[in-house]
Amino acid sequence: MTDGRTAPAALARAGDAWFQALVDLSPDTIFVICDGYHVFANARGLALLGARTIADLQDRPAIEFMHPDYRDPGTARMRSLTAEGEPLEYVEEKLVRLDGGVVDIEAAGTPLEFQGRPAALIVAREITARKRAEAELAAAQQRFQAAFRNAPTGMAILDATGSVTEANPALAVLLAESAAGIVGNPYWQWVDVTDRQRARAGFHALAAGEIDASRGDLRFRRSDGTEAWVHVCLGALADSGSFVAHLIDVTAAKAAEQQLTQQARMDPLTELPNRATLLEHLARALDMRLSQVAVLFLDLDGFKQINDGYGHAAGDELLRSMGRRLRGAIRSEDFVGRLGGDEFVAILTGPDCERRAQGLTTRIRDVVRQPVALAAGEVSVDVSVGVAVGTGTSYDAKGLLAAADSAMYRAKTARHGTPVASR
């Protein structure tokens, strides 16, 4: 028990102990600076500056622990605190540790008295890691912006609706539109109507988090009216709510691809569909199980003699001429191709295909028999025609073609004008 005179002193001593514990355990750095020197530093403050005791800090003025770039404004702020009694709002500064290392801090201060003299209480928090992260982020953003501006391919930043918020110069060239004219519009505004729904669906799936990326080749309609094939790749920009679009002009690649496809499907000499394409077309026609299909198998009579007598160049010239004539002899909905050598095939579909095959046979004979003017001289050939008619329930593609081939050989052997039909 204490009397009334000793209780206030005991409470004061207890309060000092509680305050000391609070200061020592604070996660923030706490300094007291008086007459230009550190007179107090809590455990966090000593560790921040690389000191073991307060005495380690008292060999030099407190301002010398501040980075040289910050000393002049730091001196002014300390004078305002101690001489003018003005509190200091949080500012960012750099301190130099005893070992020479530099740390970033944000600090605030308030004036106070220490042993009857003006002093300043400084509360600081180390932000070195945060500043490093901010610097790295700023550098990354600068690198991204530099890459964005100078990328040889079109790039755009899209918002959550798919509208363009930024467009790089390469995209302006690709779309034949100014960057200002691109911004504010959804990127699919330039997509051809045939592909626009697919473009929208891909973006919305990405925005909804259903897919990680959306990519594909789309037909674009440029602002100058020209068309282009564009490979579009969309992805999310992490934690930004925005998306990045890469757009690459693949028009030339598409044209080359189509040319290769065309070459793979066409006979290079006559520019008619080749054997593989003929069989593919015939198979599709027979897939309509109850629909009749007529196949005309054509073999040029006299071609070998011309090829042997005038040379292969003349034979090739003759085949090219026959290809043009056969293409002109059939209707647009019918099909004709070169099987190989001097053999050609015509394919007719529909319920009246057998009747039309008879008429087409006559027309083919007429156009083939007309003389052909070659570089080596004028020549004439004839043609043997075999017709086979069937449906998908009775033939497959190779079977119906073989039946027409057999009919052609019977016609060639018979040497008469009416084709022999195989049913």
TrEMBL record:
<protein>
    <submittedName>
        <fullName>PAS domain S-box-containing protein/diguanylate cyclase (GGDEF)-like protein</fullName>
    </submittedName>
</protein>
<dbReference type="Pfam" id="PF00989">
    <property type="entry name" value="PAS"/>
</dbReference>
<dbReference type="InterPro" id="IPR052155">
    <property type="entry name" value="Biofilm_reg_signaling"/>
</dbReference>
<dbReference type="InterPro" id="IPR035965">
    <property type="entry name" value="PAS-like_dom_sf"/>
</dbReference>
<dbReference type="Pfam" id="PF13188">
    <property type="entry name" value="PAS_8"/>
</dbReference>
<feature type="domain" description="GGDEF">
    <location>
        <begin position="291"/>
        <end position="423"/>
    </location>
</feature>
<keyword id="KW-0175">Coiled coil</keyword>
<feature type="coiled-coil region">
    <location>
        <begin position="123"/>
        <end position="150"/>
    </location>
</feature>
<dbReference type="InterPro" id="IPR013767">
    <property type="entry name" value="PAS_fold"/>
</dbReference>
<dbReference type="Pfam" id="PF00990">
    <property type="entry name" value="GGDEF"/>
</dbReference>
<dbReference type="InterPro" id="IPR029787">
    <property type="entry name" value="Nucleotide_cyclase"/>
</dbReference>
<dbReference type="InterPro" id="IPR000014">
    <property type="entry name" value="PAS"/>
</dbReference>
<dbReference type="InterPro" id="IPR043128">
    <property type="entry name" value="Rev_trsase/Diguanyl_cyclase"/>
</dbReference>
<dbReference type="GO" id="GO:0006355">
    <property type="term" value="P:regulation of DNA-templated transcription"/>
</dbReference>
<dbReference type="InterPro" id="IPR000160">
    <property type="entry name" value="GGDEF_dom"/>
</dbReference>
